[in-house]
Specification:
Shape: globular
Number of strands: 11
Strand order of the largest sheet: 6-5-4-3-2-1-11-10-9-8-7
Order of helices and strands: HEEEEEEHEEEEE
Number of helices: 2
CATH architecture: Clam
Distance between the termini: 83 Å
Strand content: 35-45%
Helix content: 10-25%
Largest sheet: 11 strands, antiparallel
Mean pLDDT: 86
CATH topology: outer membrane lipoprotein receptor (LolB), chain A
Radius of gyration: 20 Å
CATH class: Mainly Beta
CATH superfamily: Lipoprotein localisation LolA/LolB/LppX
Length: 204
């Protein structure tokens, strides 16, 4: 068996810890730069909930603070963020729910000005993947989100968002995977408007 000399053991242990910690700090900084450099993003998404139900649609994001999840035809749901609020619309029951973006796990995507180092950490994984878990330790009821990026020289700050896994305060898991990502394309502000079903008379 190999044994470290007592005088060298602390230095070797420190080196073993310092390298990954430094790499994780670099990766977290890269994610911060990515989010701040991201102006617009459009992508196809596949959403899987805790029961295995799968929905698809198109994601449109425009910084700061705007996103639209347009679900596939036949799914009467819409999620829109704008004006500091995240809105969930269910047209089948004419219901609208709104809450502050900052109270949602998606806030990490929609508020790039926040300092990730205060509430996020890098999750170790494959070399070509950067995963960052974000949560507010003062507000566990907001849930947490793990953003998953691929290293890609063509993406903002050398990263491309692949999707995320969100857990709410009841540990209900939602997984979103992105494909056909497109960065920097013009997106009209009108994209984030929506029709309020509560103001529409029911069909006869």
């Amino acid at each position: 068996m190999f044994r470290f000399l007592p005088a060298l053991a602390p230095a070797l242990a420190l080196a073993a810890v310092a390298a990954p910690v430094s790499a994780q700090a670099d990766d977290l900084a890269s994610v911060q730069r990515h989010l701040r450099a991201l102006t617009t993003l459009t992508a196809d998404f596949t959403q899987t909930d805790r029961n295995g139900r799968v929905l698809t649609g198109v994601l449109t994001l425009k910084q700061p603070g705007r996103v639209r999840f347009q679900y596939e035809k036949g799914v009467p749901l819409l999620i829109v963020a704008e004006g500091g609020a995240l809105t969930f619309i269910d047209y089948s029951v004419r219901q609208v729910q709104r809450w502050p973006i900052r109270n949602s796990p998606l806030g990490v995507l929609l508020d790039p000005g926040r300092d990730l180092s205060r509430y996020a950490r890098v999750v170790p994984g494959a070399p070509q993947i950067v995963s960052v878990e974000a949560r507010d330790p003062k507000h566990p009821e907001y849930g947490r989100i793990t953003l998953i990026f691929a290293r890609d020289a063509g993406g903002p700050a050398g990263l491309k968002l692949q999707g995320w896994v969100a857990l709410d305060s009841q540990n209900n898991r939602t997984t979103v995977r992105l494909t056909n990502q497109r960065h920097g394309a013009p997106v009209s502000d009108g994209t984030f408007r929506w029709n309020d079903p509560r103001r529409t008379s029911p069909r006869s």
